């Protein structure tokens, strides 16, 4: 397979003025070869970072051609439009990091080398993690299945292809995220990462809650491991006040990003937020519903409230 050709033009980085531009050049990760989008505020005024690892929708035509599935069915693994819903983060003084490539092509919310050996034509190196719950389920760093349970690939791929995707897609995303966290921690004394996702409205065939309707929002803190209790309590209170139904850690407690970056003892707190797709899209057609603008306005209020509350949390945690 040839290298990825992402045809959509990525959005530019936000922010204006000489001081802001100098700050970006000195302290913040830049757009990395069109595979990620780092949307920065003119000035970061809150110790928050928002990340959307699964909303990328720039499909390499060669990837689609090599798949058993058409693009619509590949898109069922996307957290479609989540980048749009959280696009107000820079206006509230917080950066937003988005992957532009699709989750079905490479998943940045996994360890770098979680791979199923049955997908490859050649043996995998010893450092590859071939046995994990996610690999067994078909959802490794390079997934074998889409969310519906359908097989993605018509043929096996080479190890060299997997390594290329990891080097050119996975690593730029995590370098950018690490840079945002380090800069925020330096500037504010603490960092709060909100890892933003969406979920099917009903548990799917491979889920623990198969066939069960889901709440509006699920907050995941790895059952208390990835952030101090006050962080999830604050987010939950704001969301309840905005009229959402909220559940903690079920069926999603957080994956690699939350576990890897959430280090409360080092004043880095990570919280996963899952939005129910029925709030804003047609799940069958993978298209926006008329409710999306209203949800975005409500989430702008959530973002603004979290930005204000996060400054107080820095002083108390």
CATH class: Alpha Beta
Q: Report the average pLDDT across residues.
A: 90
What is the terminal-to-terminal distance? 49 Å
Count of discrete structural domains: 1
Order of helices and strands: HEEHHHEHHEEHEHEEEH
Give the uncertain stretches in residue-range form: 1-32
Q: How many beta-strand runs?
A: 9
Strand content: 5-15%
What is the fold-level CATH name, i.e. the topology?
Aminopeptidase
Q: Based on the structure, what is the oligomeric state of the protein chains? A: single chain
Strand order of the largest sheet: 1-3-2-4-7-5-6
**Backbone shape:** globular
Instruction: Please tell me the CATH architecture by its name.
Output: 3-Layer(aba) Sandwich
By CATH, the superfamily comes out as: Zn-dependent exopeptidases
Largest sheet: 7 strands, mixed
Total helix count? Answer: 9
Word description of this protein:
By secondary structure, the chain is an alpha/beta fold. The protein has one domain: Aminopeptidase, CATH 3.40.630.40. Helix content is 32%, strand content 13%. It has 9 helices and 9 strands. The protein has a 7-stranded mixed β-sheet with strand order 1-3-2-4-7-5-6, with helices on both faces. It has a two-stranded antiparallel ribbon with strand order 8-9. Helix 7 runs antiparallel to helix 9. The termini are far apart. Mean pLDDT is 90; it is low at 1-32.
């Amino acid at each position: 397979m040839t290298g990825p050709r992402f045809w959509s033009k990525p959005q530019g980085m936000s922010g204006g003025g000489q001081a802001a531009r100098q700050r970006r050049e000195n302290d913040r990760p830049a757009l990395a070869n069109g595979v990620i989008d780092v949307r920065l505020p003119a000035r970061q005024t809150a110790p928050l970072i928002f990340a959307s690892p699964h909303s990328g929708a720039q499909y390499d035509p060669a990837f689609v051609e090599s798949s058993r599935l058409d693009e619509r069915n590949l898109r069922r693994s996307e957290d479609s439009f989540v980048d749009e819903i959280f696009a107000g983060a820079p206006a509230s003084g917080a950066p937003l990091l988005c992957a532009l490539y699709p989750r079905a092509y490479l998943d940045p919310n996994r360890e770098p080398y979680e791979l199923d050996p049955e997908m490859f034509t050649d043996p995998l190196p010893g450092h590859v993690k071939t046995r994990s719950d996610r690999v067994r389920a078909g959802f490794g760093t390079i997934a074998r299945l889409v969310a519906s349970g359908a097989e993605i690939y018509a043929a096996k791929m080479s190890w060299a292809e997997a390594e290329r995707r990891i080097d050119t897609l996975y690593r730029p995303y995590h370098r950018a995220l690490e840079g945002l966290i380090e800069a925020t921690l330096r500037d504010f004394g603490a960092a709060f990462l909100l890892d933003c996702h969406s979920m099917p409205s009903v548990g799917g065939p491979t889920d623990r809650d198969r066939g069960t309707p889901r709440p509006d929002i699920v907050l995941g803190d790895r059952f208390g491991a990835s952030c101090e209790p006050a962080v999830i309590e604050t987010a939950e209170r704001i969301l309840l006040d905005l009229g959402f139904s909220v559940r903690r850690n079920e069926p999603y407690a957080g994956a690699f990003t939350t576990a890897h970056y959430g280090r409360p003892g080092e004043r880095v707190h990570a919280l996963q937020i899952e939005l129910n797709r029925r709030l804003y899209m047609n799940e069958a057609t993978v298209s926006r519903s008329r409710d999306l603008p209203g949800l975005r306005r409500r989430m702008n209020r959530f973002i603004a409230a979290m930005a204000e509350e996060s400054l107080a949390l820095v002083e108390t945690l």
